[in-house]
Amino acid sequence: MPELETTPILPVTPPRRSFPLWPLLLGSLFVFLLAGGLGGFYYLTKLKSEINSSPLASPEPSVGGSPSPLATPSASPKSSPKPSLKPSLKPTPKPSPLPTIPSFTPINLDLRFGNPSANIKQTFDDGSGTGRVINREYNSIQAGQFDELPSGWSPRVTVCYHLIANEKLDGALINYTFSLDNVTEVQDNFSSIGIMEAGRIYDWCHDVTTALGAHTAKLVLNPTRSLKEGNYANDLARVDWTNLADNIPPNFTLMGPVYEGTTGVCLFPQYISDNVTLVSALKIEQKVDSADWTAFTGTRYCFANEHNTTHTYSIKITDARGNKTEQTRTFTITLPD
Q1: Is-contact 253 288, C-beta < 8 A?
Q2: Minimal CA–CA distance to 137: which of 174, 113, 162?
Q3: Is 26 helix (H, G, I), strand (E, B) or coil?
Q4: What average pLDDT score do residues 8-29 get?
Q5: Cβ of 90: how many Cβ atoms within 10 Å?
Q6: Burial bucket for residue 194 (CB in 10 Å: 0-12, 13-18, 19+)
Q7: Rounded mean pLDDT of 7-33?
Q8: What residues does each domain of the chain span?
Q9: Are 137 and 124 in contact (CB under 8 A)?
Q10: Could you tell me if residue 78 is left (phi over 0), alpha (psi between -120 and 50 degrees) or otherwise beta?
């Protein structure tokens, strides 16, 4: 057989594969976007946690001392806020809100005293029977002094205050306190005046005292500072005066000596009067020669059977305030033939 010719078999080298770049680029882009999204989410979550844990936005602790549900703790351990209350302290309940005060519109009571702010006057009937009333008046910038008067003239001392309002006011809204010699006598309001028109002067008067001596009367507006408070130019008016004691002595005429026959030589006072004290209340005394003063009784004093003798006779009359008048006669008794 013919011998077959064998052809040597050579090793076959497989062809080299080529990989395109576009899948690699797409994968890299996907990884980049995914990483950016995760990073942004982490950043936003952390930022929110830091804002919630900031002292400026720290939630108010609840009654039990645990944080409020509004404060969401962050996943980061650094952003976990510490509780504002120490565990050793007893929890304090949240204070109750203060009661609501009802609103009101303040009233501006523009009230003031006139100038002069007050006056003192003495009123009396002179006793003439005509009913004529006499006034003696002093204002607050003068030194008021009133002489004592007979009680039968019904004297009165009155203090009057002058009030001026710059706007229309209801007198019932204006409170006052009136005091005499630092003792409160009246606490009231000016409802008796009624409505006070702006710019008009109103007088509030009050009878005070006829007692002797120095006196002070004061009127204070709105002393309790109520809601009807006013803005005053001045809120106190004061007036001082003195009731003077009678200093005029009694008046009389000593009559005598008069020869009255068997009664003897007599003396007696006549036309007795006083400006204040009643005649029946006057103190009448007599003194004979060197004897002491004794009360004058009856209507006269007589020397009987005292022919050719010399005597001194005196009459003294004293009123209720100690004012006195004295008259004296010295004479020699000579009986007619």
Answers
A1: no
A2: 162
A3: helix
A4: 61
A5: 6
A6: exposed
A7: 62
A8: 111-244, 251-333
A9: no
A10: alpha
Beta-sheet strand order (sheet of 201-207): 133-139, 111-125, 156-165, 201-207
**Which residue reads 């409802």 in tokens?**
191
- Reported pTM: 0.60
Please, are residues 151 and 174 in contact by the beta-carbon 8 Å criterion? no
249 token code pair: 């002595």
- Collapse the DSSP code of 64 into the 3-class scheme (helix H, G, I; strand E, B; otherwise coil) and give the result: coil
Residue position matching structure tokens 């809601």: 227
The confidence score (pLDDT) of residue 20 equals: 65
Query: What does the DSSP assignment read for 166-201?
Result: SS-EEGGG-EEEEEETTEEEEEEEGGGT-EEPTT-E
Q: What is the pLDDT of residues 246-293, one digit of tens each?
A: 999 999 999 999 999 999 999 999 999 999 999 999 999 999 999 999
Q: 111-244 has which fold?
A: Immunoglobulin-like (2.60.40)
Residue whose structure tokens are 């007893």: 90
* Mean per-residue pLDDT over the chain, rounded: 78
Strand blocks (E) in 190-320: 195-196, 201-207, 213-221, 236-244, 251-259, 265-273, 283-288, 294-295, 301-303, 309-318
Cβ contacts of 18 within 8 Å, gap of 6 or more: none
**CA-CA distance, 217 to 37, in Å (whole number)?**
91
Stated as kind and residue range, the H or E segment containing 22 is helix 22-52
Cα-atom radius of gyration of the chain, to the nearest Å? 57
For 69, how many CA atoms within 13 A lie in the half-sphere containing its CB? 0
Sort 120 into a burial class: Cβ within 10 Å, 0-12 / 13-18 / 19+: buried
State whether CATH 2.60.40.10 applies to domain 251-333.
Answer: yes
Residue length of the chain = 337
- Pull the structure tokens for residue 295: 């009360």
312: left (phi over 0), alpha (psi -120 to 50) or beta: beta
